[in-house]
């Protein structure tokens, strides 16, 4: 968050129904909320699910927004079907973002041609994605890193 230039917003009222203003993580969530995926419950309330793991598709959405990429410039999100055997498992709202993240080298699939959109992301995967997002444009990704880390 700090790498992106975001500062915790300690004065903000919680935007999500399941986040209380006095919780330690609220200023961080509020500062990053425009990049994060939230969920609408059946009762219409918007929730964040702070105890749930981050999913690969949600991280793809966040890094594309953080990179300032315009989802309108994505290839037809139908192309995600050509990229991944499990494209049907990617939520509709995330498809354009996943395509952009892949097209821009921010995230990749697995050797078995899957994306695993609903799979929680590991710390190693998150670190590799953030590295790709913030690396010097003249620097290429480390291709010698293990598959586990570069996905």
Question: Main attributes?
Answer:
151 residues, single chain, disordered C terminus, two-stranded antiparallel ribbon, mainly alpha
Radius of gyration: 16 Å
Question: How much is the average pLDDT?
Answer: 81
Overall structural class, as computed from helix and strand content, comes to mainly alpha
Sheet having the most strands: 2 strands, antiparallel
How far do the termini sit from each other? 21 Å
Number of helices: 6
- Give the neighbour order of strands across the main sheet: 1-2
Helix content: 25-40%
Number of DSSP strands? 2
β-strand percent reads: under 5%
Shape: globular
One letter per element, helices H and strands E, the order comes to: HEEHHHHH
Could you please describe the fold and organization of this structure?
This protein is mainly α and 151 residues long. Helix content is 31%, strand content 3%. The protein is built from six helices and two strands; from the N terminus they run αββααααα. A hairpin with a 5-residue loop joins strand 1 and strand 2. Helix 2 packs across helix 4. The two termini are 21 Å apart. Residues 138-151 have low confidence and may be disordered.
What's this entry about, in short?
The chain has 151 residues and is mainly α. It has helices spanning 26-32, 56-66, 80-83, 95-103, 123-134, 147-150; strands at residues 39-40, 46-47. Strands 1-2 form a two-stranded antiparallel ribbon.
């Amino acid at each position: 968050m700090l790498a992106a230039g975001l500062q915790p917003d300690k004065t903000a009222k919680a935007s999500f129904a399941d986040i209380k203003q006095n919780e330690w993580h609220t200023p961080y969530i509020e500062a990053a909320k425009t990049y994060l995926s939230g969920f609408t419950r059946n009762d219409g309330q918007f929730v964040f699910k702070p105890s749930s793991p981050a999913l690969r598709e949600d991280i793809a959405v966040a890094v594309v927004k953080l990179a300032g990429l315009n989802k309108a410039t994505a290839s037809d999100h139908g192309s995600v079907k050509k990229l991944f055997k499990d494209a049907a498992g990617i939520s509709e709202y995330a498809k354009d973002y996943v395509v952009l993240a892949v097209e821009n080298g921010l995230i990749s699939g697995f050797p078995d041609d899957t994306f695993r959109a609903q799979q929680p992301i590991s710390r190693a995967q998150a670190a590799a994605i953030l590295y790709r997002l913030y690396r010097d444009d003249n620097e290429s990704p480390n291709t010698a890193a293990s598959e586990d880390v570069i996905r």
